[in-house]
Amino acid sequence: MPRRIPAPLIALASAFDARPWAGEDVCERQGGGPTITLPDFGPDSSDGDGLFLDCRHFLNGFSVEEFRDLGGVLTAGWGTLGGAGTIGATIGAHDRVEVTNGGAVDLILEGNGPGNARWGVGDVDLVVPAGTTVALPNDWRRGVLDPEEYLILTRSGGGSIHVPVRRVDDARIALRPRGGPGDLDDDGFTLQSLDPLTWWGIERGRVWWATTAATTGMDWLSTTFRDRLGFTGDEELTVWGDLYDVRGQIADRLLPGWVEPSRPLRRQRPRSESIGATVRLIDGSYASSEIGDYRGWTIEGWIDGLQDVGDDLHRHYLDLIAHYAPPGWPLTLYQDVGESRRTLDPRRATADRDPYDLLYTSEVGGYRGRILCRVNPASKREVEIEADGPFRRRHPFELVLDEREDGV
Hints:
This protein is mainly beta.
């Protein structure tokens, strides 16, 4: 269901290359965590070739570990209450969270749960009758989900229980168990799959990790890997609420290859380009050789400067364009930083492909979600950015992007 947010914030994310650390010990959670060793990536490896759509894809694969998704924790809570059967949760064709009660007794989501606004439950008790699927009445909220935004699950004729999920980048990710959807975003390997008690994400351009285990921090066994994620090794331990004792660290430095301006885009123009040659013949007719046509976008916005209220991003943006995403290289445009689904042109919705699900969103006619692109050569290899006034507060930028052939 489209939300009334006319100008959301965006993110620009380069592809992530994990091959330099293939087979290498990279980190270890203090307090008894396993040593994290990246696999030997390669064309014949079950863990993939080591090239990821972006850093979030590498960290968590747009998913949580099996049984840690909302459906999994609802099922576990249901069992604790003595209920039988599986409870499912997903996003339906109308972009509302849907809950399926596979048990033989009615399920109730109480109207006073702290996470009701996040998931769209509402402020009155919601009954999901046995053997049915019910769409939650309100829109679900985008952005980082904290564990204290829990639901209160009640079994008809029984007790009630709190149902928290992990701290995750957005609610859509919390609905996806790794290996469960089996779609284009579900590649199998993620960094968090190497330690079931540690999970990872990105918030406001910085990588974070969290755990419920007793820990005092992270030991970085590879300084180059640490630097690539933006950590310094001096980060303080952060506690996200006391109820479930979720703790971890947020990187002190911005994630290289990931830029989140604090202002929405000025302009976003769809574009097309036909490649070929056309000549006029002596008799007045024409002959042509058409190679192909491409779709893309021209985007214009502002990069935060030195004297802005947030992070100074102007050199960070130059690093993105010069090193991580020069012309021809992959770049993902997040049209709304709290929405990690792929964008879908509403015209491509069919009976077999809903306009909204766990992979796609057609919100605002395809102007939400993330678009997989490549930087068009028209963006040039030599880039200058200049403040738009006497103070270095913001810097205008423009990028020309082509949608990738595997973008849908």
